[in-house]
């Protein structure tokens, strides 16, 4: 945030809804950890692959794949079913997309 005198001030953001690591949501006084950033990065990769936002996932809209359900599909070997076909040019998801999916779930 830029202040009137040109001094920059960083505000502490303990996580935005949808990007918030579950372990931080369960404690009264969360401590920022590298793991929380890694979790948020995984959510961003999932957003890119599905063309859905984390807000859509949380809103309960019809046709939206819940993040937990998506992880379950991945555990069953069906994670690629959730990847948006438009980003693959209408074709089957590529090896790169499969690798991004694997990274997002780490």
From TrEMBL:
Coiled-coil ranges per UniProt: none
Protein kinase domain span: 1-106
Entry's transmembrane regions: none
Single GO term (MF): protein kinase activity
Entries under Gene3D superfamilies matching the protein: Transferase(Phosphotransferase) domain 1
PANTHER family: OS07G0626500 PROTEIN
UniProt-recorded name of the protein: Protein kinase domain-containing protein
Organism from which the protein derives: Nyssa sinensis
């Amino acid at each position: 945030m830029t202040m009137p005198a040109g001094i920059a001030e960083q505000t502490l953001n303990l996580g935005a809804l949808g990007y918030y690591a579950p372990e931080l949501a369960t404690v009264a006084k969360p401590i920022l950890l590298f793991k929380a950033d890694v979790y948020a990065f995984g959510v961003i990769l999932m957003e890119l692959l599905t063309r859905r936002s984390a807000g859509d996932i949380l809103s309960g809209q019809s046709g939206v794949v819940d993040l937990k359900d998506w992880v379950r599909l991945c555990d069953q070997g069906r994670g690629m079913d959730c990847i948006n076909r438009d980003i693959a040019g209408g074709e089957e998801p590529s090896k790169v997309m499969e690798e991004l999916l694997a990274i997002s779930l780490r």
